[in-house]
Amino acid sequence: MKPYVFITRKLPEETIVELTEKFEVKMWEHEDIPAPREVMLAEAKKASGMITMLSDKIDEELLSAGENLKVVANLAVGFDNIDLKAATERGIIVSNTPDVLTETTADLSFALLMAAARRIVEAAEYIKAGMWEGWSPYLLAGHDVYGKTMGIVGMGKIGEAVARRAKGFGMEILYHNRSRKPEAEKEIGAVYSSFEDLVTKADYVVSLAPLTDETRNLFTADVFAKMKKSAIFINAGRGPVVDELALYEALKSGEIAAAGLDVFEKEPITTDHPLLELPNVTAIPHIGSASTETRTTMIKLCCSNVKSVLTGDSPKTIVNKEVLQ
């Protein structure tokens, strides 16, 4: 009997050939609607391997249900949706998709910064609504990017890639990270800064931090109060690092100038989300790595990891390496 693999979203058949040639594979029927909890639990009971999304809750209950479960391949760099401790205790390998999405996510992060700074989305909606009746000096005037100061919170590989782009725009680059990055300081000219100094000095505060106990609700009302009134806040990392009510109040009161957001505390958000009421918010639906090429590469990496585990080999990218010891 072939091992059974469950994929929690509908993916193009051509991207999962590596699995369908060797295993029994079932996909959830929707591309963008998560499988209900009861379906996830039922599939986990049967599965030897699962390919999951960052929005899927892979907790102790689900992992315990997976009596035959050997591998969970998360289609993301992050894995805070998975109870890593519970998986490790059960000998279940957890893999992710690092590196392959670095440049794509950096492209999006910088594009989001520029869109928020220059009010691109607002301007596009303005002209489509037939509101453009003439030219005026300050019509939809935004903020310059070139030569300004960027502060990056979370200087991982994506942070370094964003910093390289900022260098091309003549920006001064500050960064805050758990550990210093001497190579980035030397090659890019990035300057290590305390968190407080960074948020005080930066024209653009870019959050690319992973979600940990230390970073959850890192950006509070007090933090936004320390930023420049002209500051623009960008979050392309993880939504729960921000107190969204505090961000809303800071934007509404003019305490900071604008925000560009790819991630939110709870996803997906609905049209009545308070942040969507504000004209100085550029909001997009968690599409950091969403280029066709990169998403296909991510899917194939997940498939490769599942295949490796189920055929007795080591996966290319494993989160809980202690399982192999």
What are the main properties of this structure?
12 helices; 34% helix; 325 residues; Rossmann fold; alpha/beta
| Poorly predicted ranges | none
End-to-end gap: 28 Å
What is the CATH level 1 assignment of the largest domain?
Alpha Beta
Q: Helicity, in percent? A: 25-40%
Which value, in Å, is the CA radius of gyration?
A: 21 Å
Describe the structure.
The chain has 325 residues and is of the alpha/beta class. The protein folds into 2 domains: 4-100 and 292-324, NAD(P)-binding Rossmann-like Domain (Rossmann fold, 3-Layer(aba) Sandwich), CATH 3.40.50; 102-283, NAD(P)-binding Rossmann-like Domain (Rossmann fold). Helix content is 34%, strand content 14%. The protein is built from 12 helices and 12 strands. The protein has helices at residues 17-20, 37-46, 60-65, 84-89, 102-118, 120-128, 157-168, 182-187, 195-201, 221-226, 244-253, 292-310, and strands at residues 4-7, 24-27, 49-52, 71-74, 93-95, 149-153, 172-176, 191-192, 204-207, 232-235, 258-261, 281-283. A 7-stranded parallel beta sheet has the order 8-7-6-9-10-11-12, with helices on both faces. β1 (4-7), α1 and β2 form a beta-alpha-beta unit. The longest helix has 19 residues, at 292-310. The two termini are 28 Å apart. The relative contact order is 0.14. The mean pLDDT is 97.
